[in-house]
Every structure is written in structure tokens, then in C-alpha cells.
Amino acid sequence: MKQSGSCYYYLADGLGSTMAVVDASGTVQDSYTYDVYGTPSKTAHHASAATGTTPLR
Question: What is the pLDDT along the chain (57 residues), one digit of tens a residue?
């Protein structure tokens, strides 16, 4: 995704759930975990990330 002139990439697990958002250099900007029902929760966020709060699933 491109936002504010920067490119970000979604990293998915084997089920296709978003596990992390990284910037062009590979630095993790956001990471996510899921409960047993598939409800996501953001587990880490870096202040420099401009990626919003909703992971793609």
C-alpha cells in the first residue's frame, strides 16, 4: 500500500491473515495476533507508521 509517499507491505501467515505491516526497508511498522475466533488485535505499533488501524484479512 502507498500512503503519504511511503510504501508499506502486508505479510500474511499460512491462512492469509495479516501478521505484520512492513515498510520498504523491511522494518515492522505494525503487527497483529488473532484469537481462536479470528478476531484481530494489534500487538505492536511504531509511531512512524501511517498505516491506519485495520488489518486486511
Answer: 888 888 999 999 998 999 999 999 999 998 998 888 888 887 777 654 444 544 454
Q: State how far the Cα of 5 lies from the Cα of 50, in Å rounded to an integer.
A: 10
Q: In the numeric block, which cell numbers belong to residue 18?
A: 495479516
Grid cell at residue 3: 500512503
Predicted TM-score (pTM) of the model is 0.66
Strands (E) in the chain, as ranges, are 2-3, 6-12, 18-23, 28-34, 40-45
Q: Which three cell numbers stand for residue 51?
A: 498505516
CA distance 22 to 31: 9
* CB within 8 Å of 26: residues ≥ 6 apart: none
